[in-house]
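Aim 2, interim progress. The first record below pairs a target sequence with its structure tokens.
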Amino acid sequence: MKIMNIKVTFWRALFVVIMLLGVYSACVRYFKGLGAVSNLSDQSPWGLWIGFDCLCGIMLAAGGFCICAAVYLFKIERLHSIVRPTVLTALLGYALFIVGLLVDLGRPWYIWHLTVYMNPHSAMFEVGWCVMLYTTVLLFEFSPNVLERLHLNWALKIVKGMMPVLIVAGVLLSTLHQSSLGSLYLIMHGKLHPFWYTPALPFFFFGTAIAAGLAMTIFESTQSAKAFGRHLELSVLVELGGALLVALWVNGLLRFLDYYHRDMLAKIIQPSYEAYFLWLEILLAFVIPITMLSFKKVRLSPNGLYLASLSAILGLVTNRLNVAITGLDTWSGHHYLPKWTELMITVSIIAFGFFLFAMAVKYLPIFEQGPATSQPVRAPQKIRAELPKPSHVAT
């Protein structure tokens, strides 16, 4: 079916429906206030929009600084082919987080106060400035795609000359605000459940951001190959899968040591509302992906890498939601559940992010081969991917 030369498909129709519901929910929020569109309250002031749009959105966008640091600082040139799509994913993640923040803030038109009324002793102040500056850095890192498309070679030369400074600044800013997001919860002693409250929260937030960034890069690369009919560089994903395995092991062992030193291990195995969510988090974030990636056959399989990265993403998202929502339910005395309008704003932001990614790939040289061609879409397990073949020495 076509309307005005636009082919109508199920996914396009679903996208339109989601965006219409999102716009409606946003209108209700801005014209009638937060109470009319959400279940936020004095007991649960930080709900889905902070837990997912902010904490999870920034964590999942960490692939930008991870891959840029690997390529430009540690000179791992074989990862260069995924720099541009990873930077695009990071830029969209931060930009859409800002959109979600403008929905969550009670008076978003006062957000400029952050740049004038400064409180350098506040972790939120530091997060705000770092996010603002890092988003600017991502715009510069992404700009070569636009400059190449417009053939502005003189401007492209200037940006490339600035790239070493931009990369270092991006890594420093990311390190600061990824860890400081955990610092926001250090003041909640007695309110955040002991399963998730620990003085090591800033370190855990930074560590899980690295793991989530690697997992998201594998997920995004596989989905891009499937959606745009591109060749999947399995050798790159295999290397990322090995790095993800190490990152998950490090995070898992640090969590175990934290629970051990705080005498929490016995409490973890006791059934409770919070324990159920903790078990789900540990299962998805550590047990399943670590078990899968420990087998060489899985690490060499596009489908295996995809499923392991998906499990890690879901588990680490569960971790952030547990910190932001589940861990505070006991103190608040009730279980927070978002309204459908609250949920639709988040879903519409995610859907719009996918749309922007597709448009960028279509019109900008995001991939080294240029814009996607009209090749048939292939499932992850059917993508023809090649690994370097070992040479055989005759005996």
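The second target in this work package is listed in the same format:
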Amino acid sequence: MERKNVAWNMIGSLIYAGSSMILTALVNHIAGTDQGGIFGFAFSTFGQQMFLVAYFGMRPMQSTDISRSYSFSEYRQARVLTCLMAVVMGIAYILWNLAVPSSGYTGEKALVVFLMVLYKVLDGFADVYESEFQRNGKLYLTGQAMTFRTLLSVGCFLGALAVTKDLVLSCFVAVISQGIGILLFDKRTSRQIPQMDRTRRKGKEWNLLRESFLLFLSVFLDGLIFAMAKYAVDAQMTSTDNAIFVAIFMPTSIINLAANFVIRPFLTRMSYLWEEKELKGLLREVQKLTGVIIVLTAIALAGAWLIGVPVLGAISNVDLRPYKSGLLFIILGGGFFAVMNLFYYVLVIMKRQKGIFWGYVPVCVLSYFLAVWLVRNSGINGGAVSYMLSMGLLMICFMGQAVYGLRKKKKEVTG
């Protein structure tokens, strides 16, 4: 079962992250870099931010809720509410940009952004099923659902775009196929797990939302920090520049994908180690996972130095020769992000949500000023530097909190 869980988690993560990585590149080839830049911002920047609103930071909480504090139906009801909130926030953002002439929003861009918000919100809703599969020790079902759902929606989107060359229509097709995928591969699969508790206690979803609110704010700020440079490029540069920036961001998806291959299967185990006060065992797991991420980042940096610019340029249909240094900064920042993400999960297991939140707040404020200033003065390469610095600060902050939490717990155990 463990081998099956690891294998399907790898396959699902590969398909999911790989599709996110290459979709903008394929739109560049099929519809041009201007359309690719619009789609890249809608899909991987703002759409992803609204996914985080729908997600509400609940996955690590739900997948590690081994004491069954909340039922599946209570998690699902809470996720319905967060999805509605994400749609409302998305509409408000689009209307605000349409009202500001300097934002450069056309009717087409507004529609593409709105449809990608819907697509990503549905992605966030599917996650409540896939988190429950993981909580029940069936991570392979999560990988299977993610694989088939992603292949269906991405295949329909690219097929529609290739035939019609109409980006808005193709995004609409993607939304419909995403909904069908959830029905086929998530809801139907959930019937295979009789231990999924479908009882619902009145008002429990509100308790769950209150309990996960700090995690939501933390994840939302995390998404803002991660994408701050992208927002700065979108606000101060052209749609073609957006396409270039998305292109040099591609390797971070590979690093995070590879890190998730390793991290996710160990989350439940690390939760038990913490609950059973096996602190040395937990520390060994964290050290081992950190070492794997460092090796993966070093390999990615070497590959980017040797062949990154020509390969990514050919994939994305853009000239990346002036941005080799920016690519290396982005990859190093991606490594920092992967390590930070590992320690984020550790802090969730330790129930240190307040520490996570107060780590994000100052870094988010600082990242805004860094991104605006560096993009204004150094363009795309400046945005890459701002991303790297922000990720490094977050990594140091979370590592420090995790070490403090382990030492405090050790003192409690040993007296």
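Residues 1-201 form one domain. This observation will shape the mutagenesis plan for the next reporting period.
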